[in-house]
Automatic annotation (TrEMBL):
<protein>
    <recommendedName>
        <fullName>DUF945 domain-containing protein</fullName>
    </recommendedName>
</protein>
<feature type="signal peptide">
    <location>
        <begin position="1"/>
        <end position="21"/>
    </location>
</feature>
<keyword id="KW-0732">Signal</keyword>
C-alpha cells in the first residue's frame, strides 16, 4: 500500500545518516529524530509526526501517520484511520541497525473513483538495516488477518472487491553484487488461504477466486542502491508538488538516468495451489498454476519473457458438455517473449512528457520508440496442451511492422503426437455433434502435408510473409 511505502522510505532515508552512540540516551534520541525528519518539509518536521525516545538499549520510534497524511492529503485522495506505528532501532555491529516492530493496521482511503479499506490484525517484522547501502540487509515480515475492500464511486459505481488472507510471510535478503556499488535482492513469500470476491456492477453476479496458498520468489540483480535511494528521497521531498518546476524536472531526469538500467535482471515466479474460480454458471478448479516473468534491465534492447503453466482442470460437470470433456487439457503451457524493447527510449519520452513545457506524445511515436528497427516481434518458444486424446506443441515468432496498417509475418512449427488418436476421438465425438465432422476432415487433410520426426511426432513448418503468402513444409498454399 502506498502509505507503507512512504513510511518505509521516510524511515530508511533518515536512518541512513544516523550516528551510532555507544550509549542509548535522551541526547541520542533527539539527534536521531532530527536526522529522521531532515528530509521532510518544515511543517511535517514540526508536527510531531515522528517521535523518538530511549527504551533500555534501543530507541522507540513512533510514526503518527495520521499527522503525515493530514499534511499531504489533497482533493485527489484522503486517508483516515491511521494509528501510531512503533518501531524499535538498536545499534549493532558494523554500524548497522537491528529493527523490530509489531503493529496492527486499519485504514481507509477515499478518492473520486473508489473507497478503499485495508486492515491487518497483526504485522510483525525483524531485520537489519545497513546505512552503507541505505537498504535493509535482511528482513522478515509476518502478517495475519489481512483484509482489503474496494468500492467503486462515481463512474465506477457498483464495482466492488473484497479480499482476505489468513496469513502471509515474506523474507528478503540483500547481498553485494559483483558490480561495485550495486546489490542483489532476493525475496520469498507465502500467502495462506487467499479469497477474493468481485462484483462488476450493482445487479451483477459475483465472481470468487480462492487459492489454498500462493508462493512467490523474486530476484533482482545489480541494483544501484544509492541512486534508487536518491530517487525515493526526491519523491518524498516533492510528494505534494502538482507539477515539477523546470529545475526540478532537470534534477529528476538526472536522477533517473543515473539509476538506469535500474537492474541487471529481474525474475519473478509465482505458484498458486488448489485454485478455484466460481461464478453463477459454476466452478472451475485448477490443481496448480505456475507463472514466471523475466526481463533485462531498462536498456535500449531489453528482453521480456513470461511463462504460464496450469495443471489438472476440474470444472463442474455441467460446464463442459460430455461430448467435449475428453478434450479438456490436463496440462497447458504458454511461453511468450518480446525481444529488443527500447525501454531507455521510452523513459526519455516519459521524462519529456512530465516537464513544464511537455507536448503530447502519440501512440505511433511510442511504438516507433519502443521498436526503433520498425518491427516488433512476439516470440512463442512453446505453447503446448495435453490430454488423454492429444499432445500438441506450437513454437515460432510473429513479426509486425510499427507502421500504420502494415502487415505481419509468421514463422511457426506445429508438433503433434498420436495424431491418429486425436482424429479418432473427434470422429467419435462427431456422432453426437455432427459439426465436428468438418474438424476431423480438416485434420485428415493437414495430415497429408505433415512430415514425421524421428520421435514419431508429426511436424508442420509454417511460414507466412507480409503479403500473406503461406507455405507449409515448403509447399506454397493459396493466398487467403
Amino acid at each position: 500500500m502506498r502509505s507503507r511505502v512512504i513510511a518505509a522510505a521516510v524511515f530508511s532515508i533518515g536512518l541512513a545518516g544516523a550516528p551510532q552512540a555507544a550509549e542509548v540516551n535522551e541526547q541520542g534520541a533527539k539527534e536521531l529524530r532530527n536526522i529522521l525528519t531532515q528530509s521532510l518539509s518544515q511543517d511535517l518536521a514540526r508536527s510531531d509526526f515522528v517521535t523518538v525516545k530511549p527504551v533500555g538499549d534501543q530507541y522507540e520510534i513512533v510514526y503518527d501517520l495520521a499527522k503525515f497524511f493530514d499534511k499531504i492529503n489533497s482533493r485527489a485522495f484522503s486517508v483516515t484511520g491511521f494509528k501510531p506505528l512503533s518501531l524499535f532501532a538498536q545499534p549493532v555491529e558494523q554500524e548497522r541497525w537491528h529493527l523490530t516492530g509489531d503493529n496492527s493496521l486499519d485504514v481507509a482511503l477515499h478518492s473520486p473513483t473508489s473507497d478503499l479499506a485495508y486492515s491487518i490484525a497483526s504485522n510483525s517484522f525483524d531485520g537489519i538495516f545497513d546505512p552503507a547501502i541505505e537498504m535493509m540487509r535482511s528482513m522478515g515480515i509476518k502478517s495475519s488477518g489481512v483484509k482489503f475492500s474496494s468500492v467503486g464511486t462515481g463512474p465506477r459505481s457498483g464495482r466492488k472487491l473484497d479480499a482476505t488472507i489468513d496469513s502471509l510471510s515474506f523474507a528478503h535478503t540483500v547481498t553485494d553484487s559483483s558490480e561495485a556499488g550495486k546489490v542483489d535482492l532476493q525475496l520469498q513469500g507465502t500467502l495462506q488461504h487467499l479469497n477474493e470476491r468481485v462484483t462488476m456492477r450493482p445487479d451483477g453476479s459475483p465472481i470468487t477466486f480462492s487459492a489454498d496458498s500462493v508462493d512467490t520468489h523474486f530476484t533482482a540483480t545489480s541494483l544501484p542502491a544509492k541512486d534508487l535511494r536518491a530517487l525515493i528521497h526526491f519523491f518524498v521531498q516533492h510528494v505534494k508538488a502538482k507539477q515539477l518546476s523546470e529545475s526540478g524536472s532537470e534534477k529528476f531526469e538526472q536522477l533517473v538516468h543515473r539509476a538506469l538500467p535500474v537492474f541487471g535482471s529481474l525474475n519473478k515466479t509465482v505458484t498458486l495451489n488448489s485454485v478455484l474460480v466460481a461464478t453463477d454458471k459454476g466452478k472451475v478448479g485448477v490443481k496448480r498454476i505456475d507463472y514466471s516473468f523475466k526481463m533485462d534491465g531498462l536498456t535500449k534492447a531489453s528482453n521480456v519473457n513470461l511463462e504460464l503453466r496450469a495443471e489438472q482442470f476440474t470444472p463442474d460437470a455441467d460446464l463442459v458438455p460430455v461430448t467435449y470433456s475428453a478434450f479438456l487439457p490436463s496440462t497447458l503451457d504458454v511461453q511468450l517473449g518480446v525481444p529488443n524493447i527500447n525501454f531507455a527510449g521510452l523513459i526519455d519520452t516519459g521524462l519529456d512528457a512530465i516537464g513544464p513545457h511537455a507536448a503530447p506524445v502519440s501512440g505511433e511515436a511510442l511504438k516507433r520508440t519502443m521498436f526503433p528497427s520498425g518491427y516488433g516481434t512476439l516470440e512463442f518458444p512453446k505453447i503446448s496442451a495435453t490430454s488423454g486424446v492429444y499432445d500438441v506443441e506450437i513454437s515460432g515468432a510473429l513479426k509486425g511492422s510499427t507502421k500504420p496498417h502494415a502487415g505481419y509475418s509468421l514463422q511457426a512449427t506445429i508438433l503433434a503426437r498420436d495424431f491418429d488418436k486425436t482424429i479418432a476421438a473427434i470422429q467419435d465425438a462427431a456422432k453426437a455433434e455432427p459439426r465436428l465432422n468438418k474438424v476431423s476432415f480438416g485434420l485428415l487433410a493437414a495430415k497429408g502435408f505433415a512430415k514425421t520426426d524421428p520421435d514419431g511426432r508429426l511436424r508442420w513448418d509454417i511460414a507466412m510473409d507480409e503479403d500473406r503468402t503461406v507455405t507449409v513444409n515448403g509447399q506454397v498454399m493459396k493466398k487467403p
